[in-house]
Amino acid sequence: MLNHFYLVPLLAMFAGSLVYCVLAMLGAWRYRRSGARPLTLWPPVSILRPLAGAEDNTEANLRTLFRQQYPRFEILLSVHEASDPAAAVARRVMAEFPHIPSRLIIAGPSPLPNAKVWSLRALLPEASHERVVMSDSDISHEPDCLSTVVAELEQPNVALVTCPYRATGGPRFWSRIEALGLNTDFLAGMLTQRLLNGMDFAIGCTIATRRADITAVGGLEHLQRYLAEDFVIGNLLHRQGRGVILSRSVIEHHIGNDPFLKNWKHRLRWARSTRRSRRAGYIGEIFTKPFAISLLIWAAQPKAWGLVVVALLFRAGVAWSTAVEILNDPLLARYWWQLPAEDVASFVTWLLGFFGKTILWRGRKLVVAPDGSFELGN
């Protein structure tokens, strides 16, 4: 009787998770059929890229910006201190491309933990053009990325273009499986949201928008209050009835090579932030975890092992439709057998995300408010 009590809601959640998998695969199919018409007029663009430190890929990533196949653009770079190793990297790359207008700006130390937005606040007033592309330092771009996102931005009523990414992890196990999860589960969630309700948020690795639209949501000063400023700017523009779209240009995101403890803290930080800023959506994430649910059913009813097989098959279909068909991800082909471990880690992180409202970010203890903004903790 006790098993039956537990099985009914678990089976309902399992059925819902299979429906989600079907929607995710349909969303991937719909995304592959999307696109924008090529531009005939090419408006000038300002690219803003905050830098901090000289990681292994910083210089190579930066070169991909200078190699964009676009007729007129400028690149504005920032560091917090002139002594930052990234400053030397920036000057070296700028010297390699003297024909590309570019500048390095010293933003100064950030008084708040969201140092990225602080740097963007220093860069935006220096931008010469109305259209801006904001790009993180751990991102590399294909040569046609700028032309693609600007063409998409020029469509009627589009205020923001956000790019999907292919995550590349380091050799450590935890970094690798996190990349697997981002390339399958995270992208699948975005495509399902896009299918059902359109894009009502953005991911900040690379965003194309206009200065006027940034001002319309309160400016970067307002966005600096949030941990996930990328989500907020997309959500605020969507609420205003402006279009937010998921680009056809796939970028590459180098997520680093963190050991277990640092990786776990990073996951938990974003789980708590998401739960506080998007409560209903966070609860609904249970339906994105068919494998974990099937394991719980199997634990309650050992004869139900067949559901584990079904979950793996549906999960494989979602992984293929996202990581292979869209991202062309070589990681899944080599390490597909590690994806169940990532699904379990993701489920545990999701559960822990329901508890606590404090996080440790950049050495500061923060309290995440219900709207996703933060205050300094004691």
Short description:
The protein contains 15 helices and 13 strands. The chain has 378 residues and is of the alpha/beta class.
What does this structure look like?
- The protein has 378 residues and is of the alpha/beta class.
- The longest helix is centred in the N-terminal third of the chain and has 31 residues, at 2-32.
- It is built from 15 helices and 13 strands.
Keywords:
378 residues, Spore Coat Polysaccharide Biosynthesis Protein SpsA, Chain A, 2 domains, 7-stranded mixed sheet, 15 helices, 51% helix
Separation of termini?
A: 48 Å
User: Main beta sheet, described?
Assistant: 7 strands, mixed
Unreliable stretches (pLDDT < 50, length at least 5) are none
Kindly report the average pLDDT value.
Answer: 90
The fraction of residues assigned to DSSP E strands is 15-25%
CATH architecture of the largest domain: Alpha-Beta Complex
Q: Level of helix content? A: 40-55%
How do the helices and strands line up, and which of them pair or pack?
Elements: H1 2-32, E1 45-50, H2 58-66, E2 73-79, H3 85-96, E3 102-106, H4 115-123, E4 131-135, E5 139-140, H5 145-153, E6 158-162, E7 165-168, H6 173-197, E8 206-210, H7 211-216, H8 219-223, H9 229-239, E9 243-246, E10 251-254, H10 260-277, H11 279-284, H12 290-300, H13 305-324, H14 330-335, H15 339-352, E11 358-361, E12 364-368, E13 374-376
Parallel strand pairs: 1-2, 1-4, 2-3, 6-9, 7-10
Antiparallel strand pairs: 4-8, 5-10, 6-8, 11-12, 12-13
Helix pairs in contact: 1-6, 1-12, 1-13, 2-3, 6-13, 6-15, 10-15, 12-13
